[in-house]
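In the previous chapter we treated chains in isolation. Here, by contrast, the input contains two separate entities that must be folded as one system, with a combined length of 712 residues.
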Amino acid sequence: MAAVMPDHLHGEHHGPTGLMRWITTTNHKDIGTMYLVFSFIMFLSGGVMALTIRAELFQPGLQVVQPEFFNQLTTMHGLVMVFGAIMPAFVGFANWQIPLMIGACDMAFARMNNWSFWLLPPAATLLIGSFFVPGGATAAGWTLYAPLSVQMGMGMDLAIFAIHIMGVSSIMGAINIVVTILNMRAPGMTMMKMPLFCWTWLITAYLLIAVMPVLAGAVTMVLTDRHFGTSFFSAAGGGDPVMYQHIFWFFGHPEVYIMILPAFGIISQIIPTFARKPLFGYASMVYATSSIAILSFSVWAHHMFTTGMPAAGQLFFMYATMLIAVPTGVKVFNWVATMWRGSMTFETPMLFAVGFIFVFTMGGFTGLICAIAPIDIQVQDTYYVVAHFHYVLVAGSLFAIFAGAYYWLPKWTGHMPDERIGKLHFWCSIVFFNITFFPMHFLGLAGMPRRIPDYALQFADFNMLASIGAFGFGLSQLIFLAAVVKCVRGGEKAAARAWEGAEGLEWTVPSPAPHHTFEEAPVVK
Amino acid sequence: MSTRARIAAENRRLLVRLAVAAVVMFGFGFLLVPFYEKICEVTGINNLLKPDTAANTQIDLTRTVTIQFDANIHDLPWQFRPLQTQISVHPGELATVAYEVSNTRSEPVTGQAVPSYGPQLAGQYFRKLECFCFAKQTLAAGEKRTMPVAFVVDPGLPADVTVITLSYTFFEIAGRRVAGDGAGGRS
């Protein structure tokens, strides 16, 4: 963060300097930077938890951590990565890019924007700090299923408050984004001329407003069950733990798309740039994104096929889930069609984007397999599911975040990222990613349950392989840190249009983007 | 300036609408609770608290099923036991057994029993016509009560099930030590 400051201070920035400048800033670029730095720190913390998990699973038996702590690690790894790393990273992109892309001078509510960011560090402190309270962090799994979450120690209360705060932050961020996109577009920038990244974020923001409050309600019910004598989920008072799962997944499934739709948007910006062709099927992309968002509200119970649902319910949720493959397929088709006969070059952002399409699609297919109720009952809570959602969340969301970071770093820092380091990062990431997660499919099909610190001997070889891959993948992320630090400090000067084929308003302002842009709204033809 | 002021006013209007939407969705989360219960009631998924009806009264004299009885208490100062450990019945035959429960605390306590079956599969063939588990039970201080269970085992019970265990667990209704209905606890 400190290294970024001098660049910005060269701009027309006035007001407090030093730490106070970052605490009081209402500038969308500063706030975007803070979101991105925050999410990277959380990404590293969640990564350390993941590597501790993989170290324990390197061999059968208990070597590194005790089962109680192992369960805390799996829980916190999930919460930190979902709420601390992936979601804030996308909000960071939105803050930086949306005003630049639609020709607005800033976000609609600059002061609220500052507040949405500064809620996150206290929330993260509560969450990580819960490791150090008596009883340790919550160990109920990131889904915080009742009745476990009702019985946990005080670490659970800290997690509930952290989720409340992060929820408020997300909702404020989402409202800001919706208002910015709907009201602050430059003259001539009609909805259907908007860059696809803005479209996907607009839809994501609506999803956030719709479901984050439901999660807040669910954890509030857990809280009152724990301390205030209600019995929403505690069977002892006539409550129903299965109802928690329904409410949670009513939030949880749209949440999955909250974490992937902005990724679709980033990929839809990058592929046309490096294929030097306009995006194939722009309108169908918009409609596909909307249909994914709408369908996401009617598929939640596919996470709960083993809870004793009637066959009619299983069939409904199974078919509704499979229906989502159609708009997703439209998107993959459009990306491939954009590349078709394009003049492609493979700079680091494009490598990550193409890697995204390959590996994310594999995760999509395993998702379809999990959607089939009779198969899901077999693979429920096994490593097959772990493999599936890491294929879509790591190779999907995370790779898109890397792609977007390399793509817009020239605009943020004024320097081109080092291609050699970037390519090294990409190839290490994609190879180690697959070494880590591909064997998990076999482990899951063979019946290895998730969230267990020990396992039967026949799973030993694949687990050792996955652990080696995980350490390789974890260390590879330090290459990303090196690439970003190098890019911030210097490097080849970036032109306003940093990439030859790049289109859009953000490439009309100088690199690095001055502190204030589009004070006078540009006119879009 | 006027354009800026107009945009700012529009922004505020949209902010209010979206904020209201967020608050409504928070309420919607809680609305899912009665909605869920209604669905369970209509579809009969979670009908532990309702008497079953025995449609087929044909007694299958060729088979005998052993029913074992089990009683547990969960975090409750009661004594709870079946008055018989097991009986043999023919499928389709009406049988009545009794459980005894007593409150050892020096104040009234309200509890609710939840039945479960072993094997789990047998649950859907076990028709309880009368059961103390259909309602909350409030026992005065030191009160002892004998409570009947009347049931029929459906003749459709798979042939390989020869023993069924019926197990009850009494839970204290939350909102403990609040008289009567147990404020805050949902029925």
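Confidence is low (pLDDT under 50) at residues 1-10 of chain A. DSSP finds 18 helices and no strands in chain A. Compare these points with the single-chain example from earlier in the chapter.
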